[in-house]
Amino acid sequence: MREPRLTRAVALAPCAARRERALLQRWLAAPHVRRWWGDPARNLDDLLSPPVGGGEALIEVAARPVGYVRWQIPSRDELVEAGLGDLPEGTLDIDIAIGEPAYLGRGVASKALRLLVRRLCATPAPPAIMICTAVDNLAALRAYEAAGFVRDRLFEDPQFGAMWCLLISTVATPRLPRPRPR
């Protein structure tokens, strides 16, 4: 029997990766995270460095940490190297992992992403917010699309191979007046 969705109990909590080192290390080593994130030791080193122009949070369900989310502004060189150089300056990139296997497929990642996007757009909004995943990570694609991200393009990541870049545009598009009925 499939577990119920948990979206009402999802929250983002302050996180200091150095303080949460043991928890992050355990999650990064879990097979379901390692499969998509790669080498746990290298990733832990990355997570222990403060994100450039961004932040990090624990994903909690009913006050229990179940995952991690981080956002940062990639450098122009990083974007160009990935073939994403046309994205606007200041685009935010999100990385997310649900570390506790019991919380996979229950709407937690989608809800956490919606909460984060709402938070990021509450102050001066970045021009766009992106999240990327391997083309064969179908669960992540479903979660990201459920959170409002749209598949923008395929690109080749030097480390992970073929990836989808999904975007949420945060720039408001002007509304055109509706034609008047005749």
Q: Would you spell out the secondary-structure blueprint of this structure?
A:
Blueprint: E1 10-14, H1 21-29, H2 31-37, H3 40-47, E2 55-61, E3 64-72, H4 76-81, E4 92-98, H5 108-122, E5 128-134, H6 138-146, E6 150-157, E7 161-169
Parallel strand pairs: 4-5
Antiparallel strand pairs: 1-2, 2-3, 3-4, 5-7, 6-7
InterPro entries: Acyl_CoA_acyltransferase, GNAT_dom
GO molecular function: acyltransferase activity
Enzyme class: transferase
Shape summary: globular
How helical, in percent, are the residues?
Answer: 25-40%
Write the element-wise H/E pattern from the N-terminal end onward.
Answer: EHHHEEHEHEHEE
The CATH architecture designation is 3-Layer(aba) Sandwich
Strand count, sense and barrel status of the largest sheet are: 7 strands, mixed
Question: CA-to-CA gap between the ends?
Answer: 55 Å
Strand order of the largest sheet: 1-2-3-4-5-7-6
Q: What count of helical segments does DSSP give?
A: 6
Q: Could you name the CATH topology?
A: Aminopeptidase
Count of folded domains: 1
- Strand portion: 25-35%
Q: How many beta strands in the DSSP annotation? A: 7
Average of pLDDT: 89
Organism: Thioalkalicoccus limnaeus
Pfam families: Acetyltransf_8
InterPro entries: Acyl_CoA_acyltransferase, GNAT_dom
Keywords: Acyltransferase, Transferase
Description of the molecule:
The model is unreliable at 172-182 (pLDDT under 50). The protein has helices at residues 21-29, 31-37, 40-47, 76-81, 108-122, 138-146; strands at residues 10-14, 55-61, 64-72, 92-98, 128-134, 150-157, 161-169. Strand 4 (92-98), helix 5 (108-122) and strand 5 (128-134) form a beta-alpha-beta unit. The relative contact order is 0.16. The protein has a seven-stranded mixed beta sheet with strand order 1-2-3-4-5-7-6. Helix content is 30%, strand content 29%. It has one domain (7-169): 3-Layer(aba) Sandwich (Aminopeptidase). With 182 residues, the protein is of the alpha+beta class. It has six helices and seven strands. Helix 1 packs antiparallel against helix 3 (40-47).
